[in-house]
Design a protein that fits this description.
With 293 residues, the protein is mostly helical. It has 10 helices and no strands. Helix 1 crosses helix 5 and helix 7 crosses helix 8.
């Protein structure tokens, strides 16, 4: 029996160094595609691409700006055209409250859709396959959404505040101090952005867009509505607490225009929403690590 072995096939002439001949052996392989270790910046780039590409972002933020600017300027025009002047303690920036309260519903909706919509479409499986680190995905979503919500809210609130102050100078409206400007623009923008981030986390926990939006809108409106119909004197303490810690009242605190004389004041609403959002983030992260996608 012959023991002669056929020669090993050779790589074709002109083939690159990494290409082995069919059936042949080679010492090593160098991929022509660069291999890069992924990190948070890649997840941020991915989430930024998503949020700027979907139509829901354009619609929700567009309606938000329309409500904030439209209602704010309308309120300023009505007051400036009236015969009565503002009181010595009236803050002209407070007229922006009405538009921001309604506009917050748009930020809430976008926050929920940023996470919950991926579960509805099944896109979350692709996201987790591309980035197996679930905590990194949640952090990237939170950072990108918070940044977008804060910048858009700050731009809209600042524009309305400047126009309203200019319109009401001849109607007894005083020029707000630097502290009032800071609270009426940066402070309220941080609050709205954190409220939207809380909605994003609730969307991650619930994994259902309609359910999460309903929960968040109920959180905003229900305490105030319930308090309005608590007529029993035995429920006065509960009624007062609902008034003081309702989200509309906490928004009013940034304009020194709260519904009650007690309760949160100054920057307290910001620390309250920050604590609630941090607790929701911890819960969303724990559930994301334990549940299947």
């Amino acid at each position: 029996m012959s023991t002669h072995q056929p020669p090993m096939p050779q790589a074709p002439a002109g083939a690159p160094d990494w290409q082995a001949a069919p059936g042949g052996s080679y010492a090593g392989y160098t991929s022509p595609i660069p291999v890069v270790r992924t990190h948070l910046r890649h997840a941020l780039a991915s989430e930024w691409t998503k949020i700027k590409s979907v139509r829901s972002t354009v619609w929700t933020l567009g309606v938000f700006v329309l409500l904030v600017v439209g209602i704010g300027l309308l309120a300023g025009a009505v007051v400036s055209s009236s015969d009565s002047d503002l009181g010595p303690d009236d803050n002209p920036l407070s007229l922006g409250f009405f538009g921001l309260l309604l506009g917050s519903m748009c930020i809430i909706t976008l926050g929920v859709l940023t996470t919950a919509s991926e579960y509805g479409t099944g896109m979350i499986r692709t996201t987790m396959t591309a980035c197996p680190s679930r905590g990194r995905v949640l952090a990237a979503k939170a950072i990108v959404f918070f940044s977008v919500a804060f910048v858009v809210t700050l731009a809209a609130a600042s524009f309305v505040a400047m126009v309203q102050t200019s319109m009401l100078k001849g109607h007894g409206g005083f020029t707000p101090s630097s502290g009032q400007w800071l609270k009426g623009t940066v402070g309220v923008s941080l609050y709205i952005a954190l409220l939207g981030l809380l909605s994003l986390l609730v969307g991650s926990i619930i994994r259902h867009s309609a359910g999460a939006i309903t929960i968040m809108i109920g959180t905003v409106l229900a305490p105030l509505v319930i308090a309005l119909f608590m007529f029993s004197s035995s429920l006065e303490d509960v009624r007062q607490a609902l008034f003081e810690y309702s989200i509309p009242n906490q928004l009013g605190v940034f304009y020194a225009n709260s519904l009650t004389d007690s309760g949160p004041s100054g920057w307290d609403p910001l620390w309250i929403i920050l604590g609630v959002t941090a607790a929701a983030y911890a819960g969303a992260y724990a559930l994301l690590e334990r549940r299947d996608v």
